[in-house]
């Protein structure tokens, strides 16, 4: 007779995601995961596999439920620069206030973690970067059509710059940078894109 799970795997994975997000994979032990989820190791291994598989599942869950919706909204928004401004305003807000303040972004944290050499982790990071860059590019193309950009603006290169700015906001917020400073940097970067005069 098959073993019946007496817990919700997605609820358990959400707790695992938050643990890895806040503390990183390298410093989070399986015992810490067991304690946070209230599950024994055998249940964790039977459901998710080892620590590597748990981390990958948590990283993919973070990307799917936290990163992708915001990037999809940005790409589909027809406002142009105001959409990019709102994206960064929300990003700074989430990184500097509320339950996850100071945690940074799990995806960005993974770029600096020891597991970044894992091909499966790299694949998640590369796909996220592509979506981030493409979403910025779509919003910039909308801004160009609306006459919101300086004539010389190269939207492809600028999308790369804004993607790096998003990474920077995540890293600096994790290091304790305040919201006012981060918003000022974002404002300066976006102001430089507008038509002058």
From TrEMBL:
User: Has the keyword Transcription been applied to this entry?
Assistant: yes
Report the InterPro entries cross-referenced here. Homeodomain-like_sf (IPR009057), HTH_TetR (IPR001647), Tet_transcr_reg_TetR-rel_C_sf (IPR036271), TetR_C (IPR011075)
Q: Please report the stretch or stretches of sequence annotated as the HTH tetR-type domain.
A: 6-66
- Where along the sequence do coiled-coil regions lie? none
Key word Flavoprotein present? no
| TM spans (from-to) | none
Keywords of this entry = DNA-binding, Transcription, Transcription regulation
PANTHER family to which the protein is assigned, alphabetical: HTH-TYPE TRANSCRIPTIONAL REGULATOR YJDC, TRANSCRIPTIONAL REGULATORY PROTEIN
**Protein name listed in UniProt:** TetR/AcrR family transcriptional regulator
